[in-house]
User: Which sequence fits this backbone?
């Protein structure tokens, strides 16, 4: 069997398969199906400064090999999260990665400060994942991740207030003209690793009423349908920044899917929508990955990471 | 079963834990299916080793399910959700259902009849072919009243009109009312039960992606124990809610006084 351990920068993981933000809440519900300590880690649902009710229903539409969601980041707010959810998650022995989201650079800074206080109080997650795919209230609601200036400001605000020892991952949106440019901005602003990719914006219309099917009108497309987009984004960013750790996200349903993202340049992957169909997916995908690595004569995850670049690395360096 | 299909599954681990009002989530298609989400079905009947579901084959996934030959191995998660609460006291109860919603009440009625309680079942559907479990509930000793939208069976009209007709008799004497069916039917049932001063439990059907509480799609505004309205998950906090707690007229919206509702600049 292949050795599944891997690292994302300074963060060591027993397997390269984590849960994706928004697809495992704060871990509690999933613990009925898998031992969280055995999986790579749990990335929590993005938490904001205040409690948030989210968007109106319907919030979900199934699409070919995927789904659209417009949940709108429903959540309890950072205070409740730090009091109830994070202590529980850390107690499971898993690697907790706290996802944070803001509607302003001030909110990212505030969340960083709250996590710094929690850090001093002994609540120490393995990393923070900064979700910048949120509308920037001060910039006509344009998503931070889609504008280099806003993206830089949000990431810098979080970095300035987070504990220096706490690795900061930044999750990018694929809905940009040049993912490499945004990746560069996030790295300049202090990202230790990049998480690629968030959902891509989509929409569905009801065949009878001819009205939008989602209460929020538009929503994020996820699932196997977007995997080629994730592979492309990972590949492009990995080619431009060979030394930057990447966490691959987008349509991973099987071990072979995970292997594809590793080969594109990711050191770890997150399983998201697949969990909705199969709550045991974080364990199953890791098992399938181990089999797939062994079947191709690879004994470690590292042997697969960036494999798709190797021929090109050799010719361009 | 008329317009619906009955699916019987050998699933002893689920059957031995099953309680009336719970549901299961069934994967559809094979490993390469483009349908990636499970379909949720209320538990209809079960014994020590098997359970039955009523399937409305209205889409590609449910159609696939009904086309599988006997012996097909399915991927099923359950039992999920909270069961119907037990009624207080020892008095009779009323159950109200629309369409295949009646299936979710059969296990409850069997249990209540075994306790010796009187049960009045008020069943409605668009047409006779969409009425289910009528003979079955009669066989359990329930008094069954039927209404259809087109008059093809029972009274011509809405099930909730029939229920209103019971307001001075069976409903008023009932210890509790239980309802499963479309949202407008549940809203009307909750209203009639409240007027009659009867505790009412409604099993809702909201579209859900996961069924286990992680995706936050199946939410509706519900008044919590502390008096605050929260967007609650029907998969884990429900599917049964107190009829008086759901803000029926605001289902599909975020009430402005809901915990975490958008203020000012939030989107």
Assistant:
């Amino acid at each position: 069997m292949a050795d599944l351990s891997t690292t994302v920068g300074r963060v060591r993981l027993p397997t390269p398969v984590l849960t994706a933000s928004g697809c495992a809440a704060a871990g509690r519900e999933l613990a009925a199906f898998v031992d969280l300590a055995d999986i790579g880690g749990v990335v929590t649902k993005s938490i904001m400064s205040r409690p948030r009710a989210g968007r109106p229903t319907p919030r979900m539409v199934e699409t070919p090999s995927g789904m659209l969601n417009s949940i709108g980041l429903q959540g309890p707010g950072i205070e409740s999260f730090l009091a109830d959810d994070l202590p529980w998650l850390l107690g499971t022995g898993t690697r907790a990665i706290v996802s944070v989201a803001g509607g302003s650079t001030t909110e990212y800074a505030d969340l960083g400060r709250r996590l710094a206080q929690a850090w001093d109080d002994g609540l120490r997650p393995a990393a923070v994942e900064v979700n910048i795919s949120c509308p920037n209230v001060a910039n006509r609601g344009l998503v931070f991740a889609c504008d280099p200036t806003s993206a830089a400001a949000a990431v810098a605000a979080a970095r300035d207030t987070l504990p220096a020892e706490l690795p900061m991952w930044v999750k990018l949106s694929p809905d940009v003209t040049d993912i490499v440019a945004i990746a560069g901005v996030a790295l300049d602003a202090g990202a230790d690793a990049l998480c690629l990719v968030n959902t891509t914006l989509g929409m569905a219309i009801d065949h009878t009423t001819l009205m939008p099917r989602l209460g929020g009108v538009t929503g994020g497309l996820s699932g196997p349908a977007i995997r080629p987009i994730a592979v492309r984004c990972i590949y492009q960013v990995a080619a431009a920044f060979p030394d930057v750790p990447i966490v691959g996200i987008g349509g991973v349903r099987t071990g072979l899917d995970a292997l594809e993202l590793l080969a594109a340049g990711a050191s770890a992957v997150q399983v998201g929508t697949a969990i909705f169909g199969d709550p045991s997916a974080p364990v199953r995908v890791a098992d399938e990955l181990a089999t797939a690595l062994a079947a191709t004569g690879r004994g470690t995850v590292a042997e697969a990471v960036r494999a798709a670049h190797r021929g090109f690395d050799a010719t361009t360096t | 079963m008329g317009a619906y299909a009955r699916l019987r599954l050998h699933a002893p681990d689920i059957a031995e834990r099953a309680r009336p009002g719970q549901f299961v989530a069934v994967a559809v298609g094979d490993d390469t299916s483009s349908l990636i989400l499970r379909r949720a079905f209320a538990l209809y009947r079960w014994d020590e080793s098997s359970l039955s579901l009523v399937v409305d084959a209205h889409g590609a996934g449910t159609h696939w399910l009904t086309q599988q030959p006997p012996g097909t191995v399915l991927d099923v998660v359950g039992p999920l959700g909270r069961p119907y609460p037990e009624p207080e006291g020892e008095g009779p109860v009323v159950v109200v259902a629309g369409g295949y919603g009646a299936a979710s009440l059969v296990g409850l009625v069997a249990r209540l009849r075994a306790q010796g309680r009187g049960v009045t079942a008020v069943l409605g559907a668009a047409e006779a072919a969409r009425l289910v479990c009528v003979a079955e509930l009669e066989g359990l000793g329930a008094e069954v009243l039927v209404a259809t939208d087109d008059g093809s069976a029972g009274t011509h009209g809405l099930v909730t009109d029939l229920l209103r007709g019971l307001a001075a008799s069976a409903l008023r004497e009932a210890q509790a009312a239980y309802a499963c069916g479309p949202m407008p039917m549940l809203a009307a049932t909750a209203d009639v039960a409240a007027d009659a001063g009867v505790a009412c439990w409604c099993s809702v059907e909201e579209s859900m992606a996961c069924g286990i509480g992680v995706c936050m799609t199946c939410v509706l505004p519900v008044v919590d124990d502390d008096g605050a309205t929260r967007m609650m998950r029907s998969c884990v906090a429900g599917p049964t809610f107190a009829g008086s707690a759901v803000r029926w007229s605001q289902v599909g919206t975020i009430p402005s006084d809901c915990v975490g509702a958008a203020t000012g600049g939030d989107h």
Remarks:
- The longest strand of chain A covers residues 96-101.
- The mean pLDDT of chain A is 95.
- Chain A touches chain B through 47 residues (CB under 8 Å).
